[in-house]
Here is the input.
Amino acid sequence: MIYYLLLPFLSIILVVLQISIADVLFSGRLILEISLIVVIYAGFRLDIIKGLTLAFILGFVYDCLAGSVLGLFTSIYVVIFLCSFLVSMGLSTEKMYFIALFSLFCSFLKEILVILFYNYAYGLDILKKTPLIFIPQAVLISLLAVLFFYLMHRTEGFLYGKAFPVKQRAGAGRLSSAA
Amino acid sequence: MHLRNYKNVIFVVVLLVLALILLSYNFKHETGTGLVKKIVLEAAAPVQKIFVLSVKSVSDAWLRYIFLVGLEQDNRDLKKKINELNAELVLYQEGYLESQRLKKLLSLKDSHNYHFVAAQVIAREPAALSRTIMINKGSAHGLKMGMPVIAPPGLVGRLTDVSWHASKVLLFIDESSNIDVLLQRTRTQGIIRGAGARGCILKYISKTQDVKEGEVVVSSGIGGVFPKGLLIGVVSNVDRQDAGLFLKINVTPFVDFTKLEEVLVLATEEEEKH
Here is the structure.
């Protein structure tokens, strides 16, 4: 229960933190979307109730603070969580190169959905910026994802004695909502 | 398998539908600041303030050290510049007083009675899609949606989300921003549209018009959102080659949006009565 109570506050802190860090490091040119990596991690490691709630709340907070149309990132994060969850059921998600590639894919998926939405809704051609902003951003996310997953793996080891084995096909090993 | 669980499938479908309803409703109705959004903004404001203050104190200490190099020469140059500007200021003050006298003679009155609300920038949104900043004043300080925001000498944008103690400002370089403007020299009217990092684009100026690089662009006051005469930017490039009836004009904003720290919100008494 405490997970669900803390989730909105932690989501706000995470989104604010990523905005502030990106502002300092890249002067607003790139987005340091750690929240996207957290959603992918949730898809790989958490059970569906916990993970989906996280994706929904994180997306909603991001929408509120990022100035996009309310519901856009909420929907995208839910879709990305479901993709990650389904992928983790069928494939081994422990290899770092897989995490990097999948994060790259998710980042591009997010950008494509955003581009399509803005193009359809407002007729804005933000595709022009793609090579300048979206590609380095996707690469940055994939590199950060590797670091994030490694740190989380170590944290799990520190907290539980050893990292949780990932047996996604059977659903065992996931951090369940009952935990 | 998780998805075989009946409850889980219902939960997934409900949350996905909820997200899509939220998106379509907000896209269609442009609801502005709802209660939940207000609460999120309100909760984020102190966190953002703490982060910004801690980052600023570190960067300020570093910059102070860097700026000490060559400070003496800068000081001399600035003193010289101040003397020049003081002389120029006297001329402008004379012009202003003259215009006030003429206004009085012609019985012209300002259509709005503005007062300024000073606010600090507590966060910048670095998203490629929207250009917004967050300030530490809200409806508790008399701010309302749509109020213009300036950072002397130029326009910054307008308030789009107002919570109790924090507000979001949509910068006029955002792609969704359109402002009715005038070219100061020729009084030619056009529409300025945000172009993100590239500044803004001045549209609907006929090819027959005489537009030069370096011309000042000011707000026209038409539309009622922005008062007349606010400095917007300077014409940086005029392209006459493009096919079509209108010129392609790039405008560089007066305000450096990457260095905004304090802004002024122009609160109108008229708006407050509504």
Remarks:
- Chain A touches chain B through 56 residues (CB under 8 Å).
- The first helix of chain A runs from residue 2 to 26.
- Helices of chain A lie at 2-26, 34-45, 48-66, 72-90, 96-122, 130-160.
